[in-house]
């Protein structure tokens, strides 16, 4: 059950971190239909990935607030994963573990929060950051998730996603892909919702 004094925990220790690693690489391409055979084949292959690791940089911008950290995403199975945020000194700022509907978040003071409900609600209450986690795993892979409104680039990979959820409009834009992996997977993506922006710069994938 979520503790009632959750509001005490915010990402304030991260707010002063340097953003030098959070540059944006602009990707350009033309849009094509979702029905492209190459897209369907790519979508099917990527959807089969259930065990992998991602390393990169996470950045959050909102009304003058800037948060940046290294992130490590360990996908263990289709419904189990772990996410770590690490500061430049190598200290863990946050550890998020999700397993079969149960979510646990441990902050940089070692305080543990557990919820069997909506992870998105718990995370927003604890950090002030809204993230649609049910779709985030798909977006990280370059898949549209529950979104029906999306566009492809000229190579048949996902370029932009429009997703409406809980009276929020999310726009996910892909600014680059890794081409040295067994599958073409994102290297830069940005999530925008109102004045809030979340950027992921993915350095490496381990499949």
From TrEMBL:
**Bilayer disposition of the protein:** Lipid-anchor
InterPro entries in alphabetical order? LolA/LolB/LppX, OM_lipoprot_LolB
Q: Where in the cell is it found?
A: Cell outer membrane
Q: In terms of domain of life, where is this protein from?
A: Bacteria
**Pfam families in UniProt:** LolB
Which Gene Ontology terms of cellular component type are present? cell outer membrane
Q: For this entry, list what GO says about its biological process.
A: lipoprotein localization to outer membrane; protein transport
Hey, what's the signal peptide range on this chain?
Answer: 1-26
Q: What are the alphabetically sorted keywords of the record?
A: Cell outer membrane, Chaperone, Lipoprotein, Membrane, Palmitate, Protein transport, Signal, Transport
Describe the task this protein carries out: Plays a critical role in the incorporation of lipoproteins in the outer membrane after they are released by the LolA protein.
**Subunit structure and binding partners:** Monomer.
UniProt lists the family membership as follows: Belongs to the LolB family.
Q: What is this protein called?
A: Outer-membrane lipoprotein LolB
């Amino acid at each position: 059950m979520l503790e009632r004094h959750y509001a005490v925990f915010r990402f304030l220790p991260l707010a002063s971190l340097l953003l030098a690693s959070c540059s944006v690489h602009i990707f350009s391409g033309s849009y094509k239909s979702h029905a492209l055979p190459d897209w369907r084949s790519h979508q099917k292959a990527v959807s089969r990935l259930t065990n992998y690791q991602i390393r990169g940089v996470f950045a959050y911008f909102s009304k003058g607030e800037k948060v940046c950290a290294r992130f490590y995403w360990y996908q263990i199975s289709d419904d189990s994963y772990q996410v770590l945020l690490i500061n430049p000194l190598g200290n863990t700022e946050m550890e998020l573990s999700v397993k079969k509907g149960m979510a646990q978040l441990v902050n940089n003071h070692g305080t543990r929060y557990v919820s069997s409900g909506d992870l998105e609600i718990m995370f927003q209450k604890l950090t002030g950051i809204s993230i649609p986690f049910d779709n985030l795993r798909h977006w990280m892979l370059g898949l549209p998730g529950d979104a029906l409104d999306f566009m492809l680039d000229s190579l048949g990979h996902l370029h932009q996603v429009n997703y409406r959820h809980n009276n929020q409009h999310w726009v996910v834009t892909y600014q680059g892909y890794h081409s040295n992996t067994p599958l073409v997977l994102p290297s830069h993506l940005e999530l925008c919702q109102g004045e809030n922006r979340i950027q992921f710069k993915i350095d490496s994938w381990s499949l």
